[in-house]
Amino acid sequence: MPQQVVELTAGLETDDLADILQQLPNQVAAEVLRAMDEQDRQRVESILILQ
Fold first, then answer.
1. CA-to-CA distance for 44 and 33, rounded, in angstroms?
2. Any residues with CB less than 8 A from the CB of 35 and at least 6 apart, and which?
3. What's the distance, Cα to Cα, between the start and end of the chain in Å?
4. For a Cys-Cys bond, which of 9, 12, 18, 42 suits 47, CB 3.0-4.6 Å?
């Protein structure tokens, strides 16, 4: 499932993806972040920290 979320959200802006991840259970969001490539994961994590 995490890889499917990554694929489905590939075209979204980083801040939109961060908003979606905040709506998911923590475990699922963490799995999605692990499934992302490093650069995208760092971008999303930086937004999540600011929010």
1. 8
2. 2, 3, 5, 6
3. 25
4. 18
Structure tokens at 40: 């995208």
Contact (Cβ atoms closer than 8 angstroms) between residue 30 and residue 3: no
Tokens coding 35: 């499934």
pTM of the model as a whole? 0.83
Q: Which of 24, 22, 21, 15 is nearest to 47 (CA)?
A: 15
Q: Which two tokens stand for residue 10?
A: 């590939």
